Amino acid sequence: MFRNTFQSGFLSILYSIGSKPLQIWDSKVKNGHIKRITDQDIQSSVLEIMGTNVSTSYIVAPANPKHTLGIKLPFLVMIIKNLNKYFTFEVQVLDDKGVKRRFRASNYQSSTRVKPFICTMPMRLDEGWNQIQFNLSDFTRRAYGTNYVETLRVQIHANCRIRRIYFSDRLYTEEELPAEFKLFLPMAANPPPPSATTTATTTTATVADPEKKKKKKEESDTNEKVKFSTTKKTDKSVAEVKDREEKIEEKENSAENVAVAVDLVEPLEQELTA
User: Fold this and answer.
1) List of residues 6+ apart from 57 with CB closer than 8 A
2) The domain containing residue 109 runs over which residues?
3) 8 A C-beta contact, residue 165 and residue 73
4) How far apart are CA 176 and CA 10, in angstroms?
5) CA quadruple 249, 251, 252, 253: dihedral positive or negative?
6) CA 112 to CA 180: how far, in whole Å?
7) Are 205 and 225 in contact (CB under 8 A)?
8) What is the number of domains present in the chain?
9) Which residues contact 255 (CB under 8 A, 6 or more apart)?
10) Nearest to 198 by CA among 241, 233, 229, 238
């Protein structure tokens, strides 16, 4: 889809405020729902995926199983809300050996396992909104000893709320991020004094070390850790946030129309309604 598109900086594949957030996605639901709702913490629209079984309620991009994303940017960033329920996501990549590898992270697994075509790992999320930063290049190198080429598919399962999913060429600080890629929270009823600052906490997840893997059995655990950082909470008035979102949506819709017209071979048959 994006293989012939110039890729630099940021490449968004889902934004909950856009007119058609699932335009390039397919959705599967059984005993659950996928819908856009208003999150009370940020007073804005988000995409909620819920299901009694995480394996049967999910969204996947691209929608057509015969197509691939073709995204070469090495960092996957997801702004996700922890609902204190089982949650998992999966990314399929292509390495320089021409092999398709899958990385699956979940909050209900306790150990890391590396198999020839899939690496599964535990993930710990903080309360509320989290920013998951996934270094695909580093994961591919350490788990399989090969080089990351591109991302083929992304699959997000229940249970979570999604603000945005995007790729980037590197990790950006909060100050470097464009406004539309930040998560703004409404002004608190009793705001802290001007001297007080809000800091972001950090969560960790284990990942396999390929060098240790070779010395042990194929399935073993390591103590290597990779950081998943949570979003920094920023105090903004609700009116300012909504005004910014309206401008962002107009800009997003315009950009989406151009990108989809060039790269989308087959339009998504299902549209998400608010």
Assistant:
1) 28, 29, 30, 31, 32, 33, 34, 49, 50, 51, 157, 158
2) 10-188+204-263
3) no
4) 12
5) positive
6) 34
7) yes
8) 1
9) none
10) 233
Report the residue count for the chain.
Answer: 274
pLDDT digits (tens, 9 = 90+) for 105-138: 999 999 999 999 999 999 999 999 999 999 999 9
267 has pLDDT over 60: no
- Asked whether residue 48 is domain-assigned, the answer is yes
Residue 140 maps to a domain: yes
Task: Name the range with the highest mean pLDDT among 58-62, 196-200, 215-219, 241-245.
Answer: 58-62
What would the pLDDT profile of 68-89 be if each residue is shown by its tens digit? 999 999 999 999 999 999 999 9
pLDDT at residue 50, as a whole number? 98
State both tokens at 90.
Answer: 């999966």
Q: What is the mean pLDDT of residues 182-209?
A: 46
What pLDDT score does 228 carry?
Answer: 47
Give every CB contact of residue 32 below 8 A, 6+ residues apart in sequence.
Answer: 49, 50, 51, 52, 53, 56, 57, 158
Q: Is residue 197 assigned to a domain?
A: no
DSSP letters, 47-74, are EEEEESSTTTSEEEESSSTT----B--S
DSSP state, residue 196: -
270, part of any domain: no
* Predicted TM-score of the model (pTM): 0.73
Q: Which of 205, 226, 222 is nearest to 113 (CA)?
A: 222
Amino acid in position 248: I
